[in-house]
Amino acid sequence: MSLLHPMLLLGMLLVGLPIVIHLIHRKRAVRRPFPPIEFLLRSNKRLARRLKVKQLLLLLFRVALFLLLPFALTQPFLLGQAGNQTESRYPLAVVFVLDDSASMARLIDGATLFERARHRLLTDLSELKSQDQTALVLAHSPPSAPVDRLQQDHRRVRAALEALTGPTPLSTDLPAALALARDIHALSDLPARRTVLLTDNAHHGWSDSAIPPEELAGLGEVEIIDLSGQDREQTPSNVAIVDGGYRDARSGGEGSYDLWARIRNHGDRSIDGIGLDLWLDEAPAGRLLVDLPPGGETVAEFSVGIPNGGLHRARFQLVEPDPPLEQDNRYFLTLHLDRQVTALLVNGDPRQIPYRDELYYLERALSTGLEDPSGVSSTVVGWEGLNHPFTDFDVVVLANVPALPRGQVAQLAQFIREGGGLLLTMGDRVRPEVYNALFADLLPKPLRSLRQLCQRRDPDAGLLATRLGRIDTSHPVFQVFDLPGGESLQSINVCSYLLLEPSAAGAVQTLAYYGDGGPALVEHEVGTGRVALWTTTVDRDWTDLPIRTAYLPMMRRLVRHLARRGSIESDSQAVVGQWRTINLEAQNPERVSITDPAGGRHVLAPEAQGPTSLRFVPPLAGHYQISLLIAGVERQFEELMFSANLDPAETDPSLAESELVRSFLAAAATGAPDDPGVSSLPQRRISLWPAVLLLFALVLCLELAMAIRRRQYVRIREWLGSWRWVSRPGHRTRLRHTKPGGRI
Questions:
Q1: Cα dist. 363→16, 343, 479, 538, 564 in Å?
Q2: How far apart are CA 684 and CA 81, in angstroms?
Q3: CB-CB neighbours of 262 under 10 Å
Q4: Least confident segment among 86-90, 476-480, 718-722
Q5: How far is Cα 336 from Cα 643, in angstroms, rounded to an integer?
Q6: How many other CB atoms are found less than 10 A from the CB of residue 495?
Q7: pLDDT level of residue 87 (50, 70, 90 thresholds)
Q8: What are 380-415's pLDDT values in tens digits?
Q9: Does residue 523 contact residue 534 with C-beta atoms inside 8 Å?
Q10: CA 273, 276, 279: angle at the middle one, nearest 5?
Q11: Are 121 and 98 contacting, i.e. CB atoms less than 8 angstroms apart?
């Protein structure tokens, strides 16, 4: 028990006052023998004992009065368990964090987890005191705050909750949402802080976050309300399509394609004969029955014929009765079947030993894989007997080619002016004077001479060789290297390269430089086509780039860029809620309009003379259309269209490990050492002084009742009985007091 005003206990010292009065008024009888009244004294012994008890009770009541009144004025109270009860306590700052990610659409007993969370939150909101401050954070990725300031108007939080129509198709980031709640708490002047997180407590919501636990210090008390209804010993069940794609059919004629979907079983029981439907351009294209092992996955494959090529939209649909999560039973694909790039690779230095061949590494980098197709179909020929028409291809690669007949050079120039692409790579068989004479109209810059820094097998090659220095990461070829992990491009060693003659700035663009300042990759346009010059080799004679991880994406993107293809098949797929780069190439539009699956329109305005790409976050799963406004005319660009799907992590309902969650909660409860404003929720205060005052009033009434003498009771009774109701003719009946003797 505690006291608000302990100094008032000094008033209890007055308890001696009634004791002194009692002792003063105590009558001491003088004992004198008087026989006539001896018999009266004996008869009054019982009455004397009764009077003595009365005096003791009066003393007890009067002492209690002087004890209870000061004690009540100190306002005593008890501390109960912590909670949000509306008992007497300090005002509280509460930030509600609601998980509205895709996994919260899971159905349990006919209601989604999101509906349960919203109902629970509204109930907790109604139990808060009017002086408590509240705010609301939504835990999708990245998190947002519909009510981003703590305030006493609880109606704003209630209105924001009622405005939510359901969970979003976005992924979740619970630590990031708690970090946003921490920032909201930092703006409050209330010392008592509380954070309530309502979530399904999925593992990916904690483990996939980039927020470390130590960044959550200052949240105060964090309460996690797990709505999943699962025990950690149970294995949750869910079947989902987590990936999909397409490729040229391994068997069949032209226009045949294989469309595949990866289906994962998150449960611990096998599933036999689940149906998978394929819809192509909103028409049914087939059904397969799939068997799924416990906790495993399988790849289902459809073979379809699409002879016309072009742009097509596909959708996989699981036929699952009563699915716990319906959104992950769909997967969307955008098929760009006319975007296959054909490349003619001209080998200038063929070898009998495969790995020493000039095109050994390039051919394999451009080859089509099973699940990550490059979209490049290559044909390899020798430079001596070259008789293929250039117009049958999109890009021509001259790899260390000594020379070509002038007639073929003229055909090549015409091919480029009409929109073709050319990639020139250097080597020991290239003579600058020959190239300057033959390809004068095609070279971005004239060749000067060979710069040899060391031999490839030199023991000190790592010290003598140069590396790539400045790179234009805004260019479509190198955009991917501006992401984490792109540093591998700067780590390559170049032992030799060809120097270039200087030229006037303008049409020629240098995309990459070596560390010593020499140009590595230059590009310019000839007519409507593009020509790129790589000043070193594409094999291992002059550089170790072919054995670096950067080689494959760089060469694929370079060939597709020369063919004026904006992106490859893997680029036509996006994840809901995650940034997607829209490569505008050289279109220079005035406006970009994106139509989402629900018909909503998103307008983006590129910067004048700015980057050749825009970033966009798809809000829904489905197919997206893109239109560009160029020179006042708006038209759709099929090659830029894409589809977005649910984050595969949201399909996994497994719960987070207890240790992982505890590490975040322990850090959240920790405040800055010198910050007195951070404290956990105070205990509930139960006031005792109203009950003490009631007891004081009751004792006072008892004391007054016992202090009145018997004859006073008689007088009061006689006085009350002297009032009569009197009725006279012509007058109303009135209550009148009678005089002694009964007269009025």
A1: 108, 10, 23, 10, 20
A2: 6
A3: 18
A4: 86-90
A5: 11
A6: 23
A7: very low
A8: 999 887 888 898 888 999 999 999 999 999 999 999
A9: no
A10: 160
A11: yes
For 122-126, 551-555, 668-672, which range has the lowest pLDDT when averaged over its residues?
Answer: 668-672
* Residue in the block written with tokens 């020139």: 424
Token digits for 625? 């259309």
| Cβ-contact 552, 594 below 8 angstroms | no
Of 16, 172, 78, nearest to 646 by C-alpha is 172
Query: How many CA atoms within 13 Å lie on the side-chain side of 350?
Result: 10
Asked if 269 contacts 291 with a C-beta cutoff of 8 angstroms, the reply is no
* % pLDDT > 70, the chain: 82
Tokens describing residue 563: 């063919």
Query: Region 194-218: what's the mean pLDDT?
Result: 84
Q: Which CATH number fits domain 341-550: 1.10.220.30, 3.10.310.30, 3.40.50.880, 3.40.50.720?
A: 3.40.50.880
Distance CA 36, CA 198 (A): 92
For residue 140, the tally of other CB atoms under 10 A from its CB is 23
Q: Which helix (H) or strand (E) holds 348?
A: none
What stretch of H or E contains 367?
none
Residues 373/569, Cβ–Cβ less than 8 Å: yes
Choose the most confident range, by mean pLDDT, from 253-262, 310-319, 680-689. 310-319
Calpha distance 529→531 (Å, rounded): 7
Q: Does domain 93-234+655-681 have CATH number 3.20.20.105?
A: no
Residue 324 pLDDT > 50, yes or no?
yes
d(CA 649, CA 577): 13
CA distance linking residue 737 with residue 744, whole number of Å:
7
Residue 222 in this model has a pLDDT that exceeds 50: yes
**CA–CA dist 66, 68 (Å, integer):** 6
- The b/e string for 404-425 (b: 16+ C-beta within 10 A; e otherwise) is beeebbeebbebbeeebbbbbb
Locate tokens 């489905």: which residue?
Answer: 622
Residue 333 in this model has a pLDDT that exceeds 90: yes
Helix extents (H) in 658-728:
658-668, 689-707, 710-721
Kindly state the average pLDDT of the residues 409-437: 92
* Percentage, residues of the chain above pLDDT 90: 30
Rg, Å, the chain Cα set: 45
pLDDT of residue 565: 58
Closest CA to 357 of 405, 403, 397, 400: 400
Closest to 428 in 3D by CA, of 404, 406, 400: 400
Span of 76-80, 233-237, 646-650 with lowest mean pLDDT: 233-237
Distance between CA atoms of residues 40 and 391, nearest Å = 146
List residues bridging with 644 in a β-sheet: 574, 622
- CB atoms under 10 Å from CB of 29, counted, come to 6
Q: What is the pLDDT of residue 685?
A: 63
Q: Residues 347-356: pLDDT tens digits?
A: 999 988 888 8
Q: Are 240 and 264 in contact (CB under 8 A)?
A: yes
CA distance 327 to 620: 11
Mean pLDDT for all residues in the chain? 81
Domain residue ranges in the chain:
2-78+689-707, 93-234+655-681, 239-331, 341-550, 569-646, 711-744
Sign of the Cα torsion 214, 215, 216, 217 reads positive
The C-alpha atoms of residue 582 and residue 564 are separated, in whole angstroms, by: 14
Say which amino acid occupies 445. K
Q: Which CATH code of 2.60.40.10, 1.20.120.140, 3.40.50.720, 3.30.1230.20 fits the domain covering 569-646?
A: 2.60.40.10
Chain segment 41-75, per-residue pLDDT in tens: 666 666 666 667 777 888 888 888 888 888 888 87
Write the Ramachandran bin of 218: left for phi over 0, alpha for psi from -120 to 50, otherwise beta.
left
Angle 174-186/658-668 helices, nearest 10 degrees?
A: 10
Kind and range of the H or E run holding 51: helix 45-73
